[in-house]
Known about the structure:
Elements: E1 2-7, E2 10-16, E3 34-38, H1 45-51, E4 66-70, E5 78-80, E6 88-89, E7 92-93, E8 106-113, E9 122-123, H2 125-135, E10 144-148, E11 166-167, H3 169-177, E12 182-185, H4 194-202, H5 210-213, E13 221-224, E14 236-241, E15 252-254, E16 258-262
Parallel strand pairs: 8-10, 9-11, 10-12, 12-13
Antiparallel strand pairs: 1-2, 2-16, 3-4, 5-13, 5-15, 6-7, 8-14, 14-16
Helix pairs in contact: 2-3
Amino acid sequence: MKEIYEKDGKRVTLIDLSDQLSNETREYEVNEHQIHYHDHKQGVHLPKKILGLDQKYWPDGLAWATETVILNTHSGTHVDAPYHYGPISGGKPARTIDQVPLHWCYGDGVVLDMRHKKVGEGISEVDLQKELKRIGYTLKPYDIVLIHTGASKHFGTPGYLFKQPGLTKGAVEWLIDQGIKMIGIDAWGIDRPLDRMAEEAKKGEVQFWEAHLVGREKEYCQIEKLANLDQIPKPFGFKVSAFPINIANASAGWSRVVAIIEE
């Protein structure tokens, strides 16, 4: 979704970077979700129960519509808190999603194009540095870095979680050392595919979940399951809003992530 409007003499473009959850996408999510829809006729039940107001008190007998959603905090586009990676981060109790500083979740965005990387390949710090040099940008603290792999086109299809390249441990460490606190990716996860890592871990070749596990030593957050990064018309010069839902003591929170361009 893209929305353009005028404000204070400026042209503002809003680009929705979030995947849409539906009952149709449920089959392909490891973290299963389900949406139950209650229409306006069914909406009479609650006010009748708690207030004694049946359908005759509503125009045309139609009350409010609501939905009941069964949802894992890692379903759909979401922000991972440091607590997701382990109980300790940087020698201190890891922050849960309700403890993540808000200023980490809004800032200057930069898109790094990694669509040339194949499924299962690692994205190294050298890859990131080469792309930054190509686009002529130097990272600064609290930038929000968005990794564009092209994997979002597989969202809602079989095997989505196994169809991306992913960041290496070194790449995550390097980004954090530049002052980055929020890293996003348009894939199921920020690591390489779980099946590849599991196979290699069993052979003693890699540390399983290596990119995530950096968060046990160096505090950071990540946005997973982004979409529409190809709709952002320039690699930097825009803002990103990625505020997560405030859930007590949770390892993640859903987010309607938006790119904001003012011209």
